[in-house]
Amino acid sequence: MDLELVSALATRYKSACQQARVVTEHWGRINLFCPNCDSNELACSPPNTQAVDYVCSRCIARFQLKSQASRIANSIPDAGFYAMMKAIRQDRTPNLFILEYDREAWRVKSLLLIPHFAFTPSAILRRKALSQSARRAGWVGCNIVLKNIPEQVRIPVILNAMPLPPTDVRTGYRNVLPLKSLSVRERGWTLDVLRMVQSLGTIQFTTNDAYRFAPELKRFYLANRHIREKIRQTTTGFARQRTSETN
Questions:
Q1: How many other CB atoms are found less than 10 A from the CB of residue 146?
Q2: CATH code of the domain covering residue 60
Q3: Is position 221 within any domain?
Q4: Domain identity same for 219 and 148
Q5: Are 150 and 193 in contact (CB under 8 A)?
Q6: Is the pTM of this model over 0.85?
Q7: Which residue in 48, 23, 35 sits closest to 99, CA to CA?
């Protein structure tokens, strides 16, 4: 995987956003591979395809690339809030590559993969509507809150300017693939509880420790009248999984 970006492509555009888009999308076409199968390349999607930049011609997995010159922090800007929430509910979000690059050197620094089945409503933060004087007055955007996505489903592809072997990336993807088989609601619940349990900062925890997250979970699952019982069921499942992995 080549970390150099073709900066010459940027000279065709005046807008910094356009320059970044063209240069990074070209890099992705040359360097990205599919984590879902053994294809070592991704095809560019047709022009003006909304929210999808690449498609694997072998397994038809869809991917979006977001890039930024600043450090990847707790959240990254996304598109429309309502469109994103609808895509999550309908289970049609693409896999997301998040690329960080050095603008002066035109060189890739890191690349993170978020599988399409890892997005939950709790990971989407609604932004304020644009003012009436704005060109798109009233439009509501959103941010993807990375800290609200469990660490297990944030898969590094390039870390500290060092590409990881594709086999490691694909193994990481396969390890969390069972989440895909869950319903959208059950998947979201599982990911939210996993994230909250991880925030305890310890491998060993009690059910009572997990119960402290009941109020926060209630905010996202208003129809669930048995929050504590569901927490107990989910955390028991986590414990069984850890036991089987140890054995």
A1: 17
A2: 3.40.210.30
A3: yes
A4: no
A5: no
A6: yes
A7: 23
State how far the Cα of 221 lies from the Cα of 173, in Å rounded to an integer: 27
Per-residue CA distances from 243 to 119, 204, 239, 246, 247 (Å): 27, 12, 6, 5, 6
Degrees, nearest 5: CA angle 153-216-236: 60
**138 within a domain of the structure (yes/no):** no
Which domain does 233 fall in, by range? 200-247
Instruction: Identify the residue with better confidence: 100 or 245.
Output: 100
- HSE-up of 159 (CA within 13 Å, CB side)? 10
Virtual CA dihedral for 74, 76, 80, 84, nearest 10 degrees? -60
Place of tokens 């993170």: 112
Same structural domain, 109 and 50: yes
- Residue 8 DSSP class: G
Could you tell me if 103 and 223 lie in one domain?
A: no
For residue 85, the one-letter residue type is: M
154 and 58 part of one domain:
yes
Q: Do 112 and 209 sit in the same domain of this protein?
A: no
pLDDT digit string, tens, across residues 144-174: 999 999 999 999 999 999 999 999 999 999 9
